[in-house]
Design brief:
With 324 residues, the chain is an alpha/beta fold. It is 44% helix and 19% strand. The strands form two sheets. The protein has a six-stranded mixed sheet, sandwiched between helices. About 2% of the residues have low confidence.
């Protein structure tokens, strides 16, 4: 049997597909792009999304129209993203909640891995352990020592059960061998107020949300959640430095598209995102708030997502939480 002709036909077909994909990317985008942000206006993800969207719009020569679809841990907004046509004209910003949700909810109207196309991790939001300025705990070592001596007596707050701030605390309890009482809030603003007043003894909080209060002396920063010290808080040690070896936990923000997004478009968006996250204007807008820019590849984003889902399952299990 002569297989030369079928092979030649296959090769021709593959070449035509590659040419078509390349042509698609060359002409993309030719109209504005919808960027879904499944959080409320003014949130960290929203602020980052708007800064990055402006730069991406300049690079791609098309506007990115930010649309906030907040609620239910980002599920409704992400649902609209996964239902969109995979043509690159509907994208979304997701955060760590996307990796947490599969462990907290029995049913989600999409698969958190299979129904999206990761494009790039835009960056991370470090967390910081804080106490009020009048707290007796002047170092993370003093806080951990007290927590060991008084199991369950020291409380820590979070923005809600199963939130990044809650799981950061659960990881600390596990790694440091301590027990603290969790106090969940509905959002972060009331929590910040109660930590400043001393009604809540400590909390992990996102650096951008409390940097001003730390700098003003209203909150005392004891330790950061990152492997390395932060430029905006150079005198604050990491938890690893403080003896909680291997501790690293922060919130991340990523750009995604629907499943089936053509690789050529993914590559173009990835390149534009990497360029944006190296731009001085973007860095000047985000870095002073403690945001750490990334702009990694699609493959790195996919690995981060699957790794975070696995780690979150362990933390949720350790916290004794059951899916709702």
């Amino acid at each position: 049997m002569n297989i030369a002709k079928p092979l030649a036909a296959c090769a021709l077909g593959l070449a035509m597909l590659c040419q078509a994909a390349s042509a698609l990317a060359d002409g993309y985008p030719d109209r504005p792009i919808r960027l879904i942000v499944p959080t409320s206006p003014g949130s960290t993800a929203d602020v980052v999304a708007r800064v990055v969207a402006d730069k991406l719009g300049q690079t791609l020569a098309q506007s990115l129209i930010v649309e906030n679809l907040a609620g239910a841990a980002g599920i409704p907004g992400t649902r609209q993203l996964v239902a969109a046509k995979p043509d690159g004209y509907t994208l979304a910003i997701i955060s760590s909640n996307h990796a947490i949700n599969p462990s907290l909810y029995k049913t989600i109207p999409y698969d958190s891995v299979r129904d999206i196309t990761p494009i790039s991790i835009i960056g991370t939001t470090p967390l910081v352990v804080v106490v009020s300025d009048s707290s007796p705990y002047t170092s993370i070592g003093a806080l951990l020592k007290a927590a060991k001596a008084q199991p369950g007596k020291i409380n820590y707050g979070s923005s809600g059960t199963g939130s990044v701030l809650h799981l950061a605390g659960e990881l600390l309890k596990s790694r440091a061998g301590i027990d603290m009482m969790h106090i969940p809030y509905r959002g972060g603003n009331a929590l910040i107020t109660d930590v400043m007043s001393g009604q809540v003894q400590t909390a992990f909080l996102a650096v951008p949300s409390v940097l001003a209060q730390i700098q003003a002396g209203k909150l005392r920063a004891l330790a950061v959640s990152t492997p390395k010290r932060l430029a905006v808080l150079p005198d604050v040690p990491t938890l690893d430095e403080a003896g909680v070896k291997g501790y690293a936990y922060d919130a991340w923000i990523a750009l995604i598209g629907p499943a089936g997004l053509p690789p050529a478009i993914v590559a173009k968006l990835q390149q534009a995102t990497q360029q944006a996250m190296r731009d001085k204007q973007v860095l000047n807008a985000l870095s002073p708030q403690g945001f750490v820019s990334d702009g990694g590849t699609s493959e790195q984003a996919a690995r981060t997502l699957t790794d975070e889902i696995s780690r979150t399952r362990m933390l949720v299990s350790a916290a004794g939480l059951s899916p709702e």
